Amino acid sequence: MLYFIADLLALGAINAIMAVGLNLQYGQAGILNFTYYTFVAIGAYVGAVTTMGHPPVPASEETFILQWSLPWPVALLLAGVVAGVLGLFMVLVVIRRLRSDYLAIVTVSLGFIVWDLITNYVPLFNGANGLFNVPYILNGATASEITYTLEVFGVAMVVLAVCVWVVRSIFRSPYGRVLRAIREDDVVAASFGKATTSSRVWAFVLGCVMAGLAGALLVFYVNAWNPQGFLAEESFILMAAIVIGGPGNYWGAVLGTFVFVELLSEIERYLPNFGNGALVGAGRAVLIGIVLIVVIRFRPDGLIPERWLRWYRVPAGGGQGGPAGFQSPGAPRRRLGWPRVGQRGEI
Amino acid sequence: MLQIEEVEFAYGGSQAVAGCSFDVPDRKVTGLIGPNGAGKSTLMEIIAGGLTPSSGRIVFDGTEIQGLGRIRVARLGIIRTFQTPRELTRLPVMENLVFAAPNQIGERPLQSLFRRGRWAAQERELRLKAESLLEWVGLTKLREEPAGSLSGGQRRLLEIARAMMAEPKLLLLDEPSAGVFPAVRKLIAERIREMVERGITVLVVAHNMAFLSDVADDVVVMAQGKVLRRGTLSEVRADESVVAAYLGGGHVGGTS
Amino acid sequence: MNQLAEAVGFGLVDAAVIALAAVGLSLQVSVTNFINFAYGDFMSFGAYVTYAANAAGLNFFPSVAVGAAGTGLLGVVSNWVVFRPLMRRKSRTLILLICTVGLSFIVQNVIVMIWGPNAEHYSVTVGNALHLGPFLFTPGDLILIGVAFTLLLALHLFMQNTKFGTALRATSNNDDLAQACGIDTGRVVMWTWAISGMLCAVAGVGLALETNSLRPTTGFNELFVVFGAIILGGIGRVYGAMLGALVIGILTEISAMFISPVYSGALAFTVVIVVLLLRPQGLLPGRGRSA
Ligand SMILES: Nc1ncnc2c1ncn2[C@@H]1O[C@H](COP(=O)(O)OP(=O)(O)O)[C@@H](O)[C@H]1O
Ligand SMILES: [Mg+2]
């Protein structure tokens, strides 16, 4: 039981990083990325091949590139960077030319191509068999399972804290406002001279970096990775979780992911198998589908809508100007609260 | 200020603007009128950089701007409102205003993260300015409401305030008085005159004659993509060809 | 040369199946203006209902009719429950797109819950391959091509010669205008879902026959090939979709034969991306829908 909770915490923190990153892309910048998990996978692979060193004696068993043995923090950063750079390439090619729903199709297609490539081109990351024996980080090799789990949890929390800081700062800054403006109406944003392309590109790349970080942490935690770990479905579920939780609001995104990505799959593991073996998994997917549609229908801004977040806060003291005791007029009076009657969501 | 020279544009096969030329003089309000489908909105869109004319030039402050794209045109100081108001519906009124300010330091991704002090000072000033603009158009009470919940007239006012926030040199207003109550229309007309006193040049599309006689120094009549006539409102209204164009267009301009 | 002809022949069979699905999807997209990620699962659904009817003792062709009717109904119900309320609210395309993903989850996994995750087979056989000129076809293949051709021709005649067909084309051009002209666009949309559901059910059956196995993911895995076809043809252009299907069917078979079958999926995706980037209006000349 204790281990179960620790495991839940560790995976929860890692999933929260993904949620925060994807939410930056979809919730703030309005880019529908249906292949987010591909970037998680890239991070995982990079994290693995840069820490695994040369494979053990029968070298034919696993073939993969690089075979470095970097210290794990370096590998972690590298994973983020590589995922970010790939995200940059992808988004630069497509973002200017496509309307948002075609862009969604392109993201899925690219995800499939990457998946095909990794699965079939064995020298890259050992093909369909994937990588195993990824080294533990910290003192994981000797520590007990539960200690290691908690350690990973700790590291993931630190990374998560940094990511949340970034996303929160963006959310409250003029840059975040530009992103939201583009999301609402990119023609209006352009008509006021806002940098519509570069703003979105940055948000997308930062989201991909976070995916890469999460992927590397995941592979350090579970010590193995293969193509079955990043089927297209994972990205869809992640996206569904964000939409359910409340796109735009990172707390909603984290909550959605925790419940729908993690809790459900954990529960599923502990449920007895009745009927055919796949029944429980299928039930989970059906549940997610139904909740998704019901939420979009009846609560279009998600369970925790964006408007519950404080829109804006001008940091106190950080500069001159403004009369003494001047209260930022834009700061809403309530921080979190139930929406007032008459506030409308998506129309 | 702005010269439009032989501009042509067609949607697919249909010629919307067919060799249109006129000047918009500095620090004046130029009214642009004409029957529905005359190509007024299309011309505004071309000036604002949203459409590229197939031929002709548009010269602003001595530089050619046709085909520059919305972003660069806006950065030159040409700001527009839309024929059907386009607010950022889910964002509060206040955000709709502050967003429009040009050259915000905190709009750059890295600056937003690491130069908080710098943009925060600017932000405070912008908010004060936005506050006074809200007062100017009488929307102060609604500052925290999502812009999507505003009425038609309030949206028009918000669009005008938002355009002012952007510190324009040239303002393009597409039917700012359409579908609003006479009292609001008066207010809008007053505000437009005040803008001109502050040194802004305005090109305004309108149908309502009372409104036009309040705001416009000069009127350009467009029909079928071309300039039909130019003059003061009373001159233009006395012109038979203008009356014929309106009747031919199946639309009589709003009565005074 | 011989091999090439064979590949083209296989490609024709593929194309027949893809064309049915692509025309159905294209029809739906042209009227509703959003892309449907659940469409592949509709194909699986049709194939499974056919399988169930067949297993229950019905002959094969009547079973296909049952499958088609069932999938048409599924389309109508989905529209009624999920999409119509959202379209009334003028939701954004992205929101509708996400809803189709949710629908895809539901349909695909309901199939798993009912029929299990393992592959099923139809009890009919496609017969032995025989040479027709340079091509190599089974009698099943020929029937498939024939059926697809007949259905598409029927659809064409229906669209051109009936009042409903006119209403449908008007709605897909401009639904506000169509409504203003007194066309009951709600009814048009409903029938569009029904027709596109029926077409894709037949495509699903064809797909299962052709690959000789039916899994809950069969349709979904084919979805992007179908997307490829409609993107090639120009999104929402029904006749373009047929051409797109032909191109992509033959292209994937040729690449499967001369490069490697494992990359034929990747090829389809590459086509999707390249065409979207370079010619978003599709391969055919003329005005694409700018929607
Ligand atoms: N997006 C469009 N696509 C095709 N034709 C258009 C479009 N917008 C306007 N038009 C056509 O261009 C002509 C000019 O329209 P517009 O500029 O809106 O006129 P106005 O604003 O003077 O009423 C009209 O005939 C109209 O039908
Ligand atoms: Mg107009």
Would you kindly provide a written description of the structure presented here, covering whatever features stand out?
Chain A is mostly helical and 347 residues long. In chain A, 62% of the residues lie in helices and 0% in strands. Chain A has a domain at 2-228. Chain A has helices at residues 2-28, 36-49, 72-94, 100-120, 122-125, 145-172, 174-184, 186-191, 196-222, 232-245, 250-270, 279-298. The longest helix of chain A has 28 residues, at 145-172. Mean pLDDT of chain A is 82; it is low at 313-347. Chain B has two domains: 2-87 and 166-246, P-loop containing nucleotide triphosphate hydrolases (Rossmann fold), CATH 3.40.50; 89-149, no CATH class. In chain B, β9 and β10 (226-231) form a beta hairpin. In chain B, α6 (152-165) packs parallel to α7 and α7 packs parallel to α8 (209-215). In chain C, α2 (39-55) runs parallel beside α4 (93-115) and α10 (238-258) packs across α11 (264-278). Chain C has helices at residues 2-32, 39-55, 60-88, 93-115, 139-161, 163-173, 175-180, 185-211, 218-233, 238-258, 264-278, and strands at residues 130-132, 135-137. Helices cover 75% and strands 2% of the residues of chain C. A two-stranded antiparallel sheet of chain C has the order 1-2. Chains A and B meet through α6, α7, α8 and α9 of A and α2, α3, α4 and α5 of B. Adenosine-5'-diphosphate is lined by residues 11, 14, 16, 34, 36-42 of chain B.
Spell out the blueprint of helices and strands:
The complex is a heterotrimer of chains A (347), B (256) and C (291).
Chain A lengths: L1 H27 L7 H14 L22 H23 L5 H21 L1 H4 L19 H28 L1 H11 L1 H6 L4 H27 L9 H14 L4 H21 L8 H20 L49
Helix pairs in contact in A: 1-6, 1-9, 1-10, 1-11, 2-3, 2-9, 3-9, 6-7, 6-9, 7-9, 10-11, 10-12, 11-12
Chain B lengths: L1 E10 L2 E11 L4 E5 L6 H8 L7 E6 L2 E2 L5 H6 L2 E3 L12 H6 L10 H6 L1 H22 L14 H14 L4 E5 L7 H16 L3 E5 L3 H7 L2 E6 L2 E6 L1 H6 L1 H9 L8
Parallel strand pairs in B: 3-8, 3-9, 6-7, 7-8
Antiparallel strand pairs in B: 1-2, 1-4, 4-5, 9-10
Helix pairs in contact in B: 5-6, 6-7, 7-8
Chain C lengths: L1 H31 L6 H17 L4 H29 L4 H23 L14 E3 L2 E3 L1 H23 L1 H11 L1 H6 L4 H27 L6 H16 L4 H21 L5 H15 L13
Antiparallel strand pairs in C: 1-2
Helix pairs in contact in C: 1-5, 1-6, 1-8, 1-9, 1-10, 2-3, 2-4, 2-8, 2-9, 3-8, 5-6, 5-8, 6-8, 9-10, 9-11, 10-11
The structure holds adenosine-5'-diphosphate and magnesium ion.
Magnesium ion (MG) binds next to helix 1 of chain B.
